[in-house]
Known about the structure:
Layout: H1 3-8, E1 16-20, H2 22-29, H3 34-46, E2 56-61, E3 67-77, E4 80-89, E5 100-107, E6 114-119, H4 121-138, E7 146-150, H5 154-166, E8 172-176, H6 180-187, E9 194-197, E10 204-207, H7 210-214, H8 220-226, E11 230-231, E12 240-241, E13 244-245, H9 246-251, E14 264-267, H10 272-288, E15 293-296
Parallel strand pairs: 1-6, 7-8, 8-9, 10-13, 10-14, 11-12
Antiparallel strand pairs: 1-15, 2-3, 3-4, 4-5, 5-6
Amino acid sequence: MSWFDVAESGLSGAGEVTLLSREEVRKCLTNLDPVDVVRETLADHDRGIGLLPAEAYLRWENSRGAYTRSIGMPGAVRSAYGMKIINASVSNPAIGLERAGGIGLCFDAETARITTIMEAGLLSAVRTAAVSAVGVDALGYDGAVSLAVVGCGAQGRMHAALLAERLPSLRKVTLYDRSPDAASALAATLPGISAQVCSSAREAVYVDDVDLVADNPRRPLGRLMAEGLFGHPDSTGPARPLDGTLGGILTGRHRVDGVASPYVVLNPFGMGVLDVALYAAVSAQARAESLGTALHLG
């Protein structure tokens, strides 16, 4: 018996996790409302419920010289603990891959063991579109008759599909992408709605979490804050203050009246707690439907 066999024999085992494929995640989503999950979690975050640690960020250039990165986003809200690992390269679409993809992890609150691993690319797009849907409703645009989608990849397609479903008055969608084929392909999925190519947006600015944005100069709004062009909602300096957070609107801490018109810019930076809350909801739905593959780790 080797030294490793002796050492390993004293361990009790790594346990079991459930693996959910994209198709299984999709099935779970048909029986839950991600917008409700995101709305509740945004309000919880504004009330100080949950944990939102700093992200881990790894960047490099691949063999094509393209921007490539990996982001680890842990979070906890109520009884849900977990982490999103989302990787991306801007050269992926050129080889037939979605720009971003990754995995979502659910943790056991008592043992910290990973209980569920799921495909996260689909849920990442759903989460971002759900934030926009909450913003459309909370900021008084639920009667919108037109929608502009700039960028017709995974995120653009999800936004167009979700908002078309939730806005009964929507009649027109303007689409723009550097690839005309991508815009045309998205237009073909929106029957009964007039579609054309265009773009625009500007003025009042809301975010999901101010400090998360301000601490990250990799994002455009974070750079603008670092340069002193935008400030915190309560700032009194020369910088234009952000109007508030979406969670603050939902809890009544920030006001909507007086917002600049006709445009409102909502910057959904992307909070890990939103993903973790969705992972927990999907995991619970998967258990209810007996979906997933059990993996014995040893």
